[in-house]
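Structure in, sequence out. Go:
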């Protein structure tokens, strides 16, 4: 999403700046405007461009929301920057702060009730973002064509809204894969002909809802994570469900079994997976290496700069990454104080995270590690 967004905004900003410069040139030539007035007008145009670009991000997510609701999907959360509107487990709407790097907004929804995974409607939901951008860009164009007596700032705003909106609609609506990641148009077509991926899409949405409402992975039924066939690890929707299945085993404390499965998955299919999911898998493997005593594997993974950068970056919003850092500090680095600090920080901020089911699981797992370390220390003192 971040890479696509960069491309979209670069194209849109270039086009909008072209319109702005052309307009300023005509204004300067016809009115003999002063240098200061041109500077002020240019600054106003750039501000209008930034507002329009961000507005189209919000409108894109709102399009998914409206079309999802029209298709029977259920509201889970809607985020603009860090301000997030969520529906809690009691069905009440409330605001909380949550920020995810690389995204300006996000709309999470749950699958329609009483609909089998393979029968879930996906077309309108996936098309909603691009349709919304297209609609608002066209309305901006009509306003430019038929409305008069507008300020130069509002003209620049409408022109920017039009250009950015059409750019978003094209690069999200035309089926594309950028860096291996499918855009909305590609997802729409792919989900029409791949039932296993539809099940994966269904599972991810349902798991997100349950995690947000404080349900742990270990409490979810095992069949939810069964896609009913061989997994295509190059497909993010299928690969992610397998990772969720293995994370469920971690939550259940099946460390040795899941560690062996993660090693096999990394060896056999790691290169087929998108980098995001490969790093997520390796993050889990670092944790299981530590708790099962596979220290050679743990040392090797902890020297992977890309992996450690991923873990550190996402630790800001995901307690599962704090858990990995805490286990590394405690077991590999022998730094009990650092481990305790990480644990205390997560506990003190536990209600600030979005996925509360994950938070409960990670706090319990970290506490178990700290308690076990205390037992080991006491036994060592007794022996001495």
């Amino acid at each position: 999403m971040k890479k696509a967004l960069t491309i979209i905004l670069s194209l849109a900003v270039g086009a909008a700046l072209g319109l702005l410069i052309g307009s300023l040139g005509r204004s300067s030539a016809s009115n003999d405007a002063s240098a200061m007035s041109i500077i002020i007008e240019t600054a106003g145009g750039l501000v209008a461009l930034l507002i329009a670009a961000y507005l189209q991000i919000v409108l894109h997510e709102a399009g998914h929301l409206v079309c999802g609701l029209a298709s029977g999907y259920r509201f889970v959360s809607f985020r603009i920057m860090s301000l997030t509107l969520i529906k809690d487990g009691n069905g009440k709407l409330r605001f909380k702060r949550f920020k995810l790097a690389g995204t300006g907004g996000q709309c999470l929804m749950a699958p329609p009730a009483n609909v089998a995974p393979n029968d879930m409607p996906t077309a309108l939901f996936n098309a909603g973002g691009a349709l919304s951008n297209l609609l608002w860009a066209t309305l901006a164009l009509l306003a430019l064509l038929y409305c008069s007596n507008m300020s130069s700032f509002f003209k620049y705003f409408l022109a920017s809204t039009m250009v950015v909106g059409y750019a978003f609609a094209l690069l999200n609506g035309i089926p594309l894969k950028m860096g291996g990641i499918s855009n909305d148009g590609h997802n729409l077509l792919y989900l029409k002909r791949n039932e296993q991926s539809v099940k994966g899409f269904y599972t991810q949405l349902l798991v997100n809802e349950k995690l947000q409402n404080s349900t742990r992975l270990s409490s979810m039924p095992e069949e939810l994570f069964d896609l009913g066939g061989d997994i295509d690890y190059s497909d993010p929707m299928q690969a992610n469900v397998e990772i969720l299945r293995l994370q469920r085993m971690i939550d259940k404390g099946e460390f040795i079994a899941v560690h062996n499965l993660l090693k096999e998955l990394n060896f056999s299919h790691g290169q087929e997976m998108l980098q995001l999911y490969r790093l997520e898998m390796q993050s889990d493997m670092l944790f299981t290496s530590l708790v099962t005593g596979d220290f050679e594997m743990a040392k090797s993974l902890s020297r992977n700069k890309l992996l450690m950068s991923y873990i550190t970056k996402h630790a800001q919003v995901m307690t599962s990454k704090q858990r990995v850092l805490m286990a590394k500090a405690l077991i590999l680095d022998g730094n009990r104080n650092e481990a305790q600090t990480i644990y205390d920080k997560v506990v003190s901020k536990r209600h600030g995270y979005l996925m509360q089911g994950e938070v409960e699981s990670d706090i319990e797992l970290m506490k178990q590690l700290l308690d076990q370390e205390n037992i080991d220390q006491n036994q060592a003192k007794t022996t001495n």
